[in-house]
Specification:
By secondary structure, the protein is of the alpha/beta class. Helix content is 37%, strand content 17%. α1 packs across α2. The longest helix has 26 residues. One of its GO terms (molecular function) is 1-acylglycerol-3-phosphate O-acyltransferase activity. Pfam families: Acyltransferase (PF01553).
Length: 215
């Protein structure tokens, strides 16, 4: 039987994130009203800095269970991240435990957080993995695109250090959209087509977010 990630833990994580992110930085949140108040959904977040996940956890209007690489679950962070409802995933294999737990989040009407690029990079949604399409179609969940801008010192440059304290970080939520073609098919061809649709939507949202924020 699949262990269901703790919804209460994720809410505690959200509250911790609120305190940390608003205490250390100056988040500017745009479009949060677009996020459905209930029901399964997937936050698809661009990823250029380690701060992106905690930032979205802290400013999103709903508690979020993020799929996080297993390498982050080290020492005391392991029980902490698990306790706040985050999901450990092995990126080097088909991690069926992580897949089952992620689907259970959606089946219970929760919010799943995914970095579609799979790892930190340019943060421009240029390479989208098929996993996002699978979860969206299998879980019957709309995708909410999220652009985090300002977590690195300049667009397209990956930095290891945190942004300066009290610096502004923009988080822009987009309109939810369906990834599938309403057929419910999960064949490789159907998921490839869904991934292509997703990439176009996410790229368009990121471009709009940059225009909106001037970043």
């Amino acid at each position: 039987m699949t262990e269901v990630p703790s919804a209460r833990g994720a809410e505690i994580g959200r509250r911790i994130g609120v305190g940390l992110m608003y205490g250390l930085f100056r988040p500017r949140v745009l479009g949060a009203w677009r996020v459905p108040a209930s029901g399964p959904l997937i936050f698809a977040v661009n990823h250029s800095h380690n701060l992106d996940g905690p930032m979205v956890m802290g400013v999103a209007p709903r508690a979020t269970h993020f799929l996080i690489k297993k390498e982050a679950f080290v020492g005391p962070l392991d029980p902490f991240l698990t306790g706040i409802g985050q999901l450990k995933v092995d990126r080097d294999t088909t991690d069926r435990t992580a897949i089952s737990r992620a689907l259970s989040v959606l089946e219970n009407g929760g919010a799943l957080g995914i970095f579609p690029e799979g790892t930190r990079g340019e943060g421009d949604f240029a390479a989208i993995r098929a996993g996002l399409a699978y979860f969206a179609v299998r879980g019957g969940a709309p995708i909410v695109p999220v652009a985090v801008l300002g977590s690195s010192d300049r667009a397209g440059r990956l930095v290891k250090a945190l942004p300066p304290l009290r610096s502004r970080v923009d988080v822009v939520f987009g309109d939810p959209f369906e990834a599938g073609d309403s057929s419910g098919r999960r064949t490789r061809k159907a998921l490839d087509a869904a991934t292509e649709r997703i990439q176009k939507q996410l790229t368009a949202h990121l471009e709009n977010a940059r225009r909106l924020t001037g970043r």
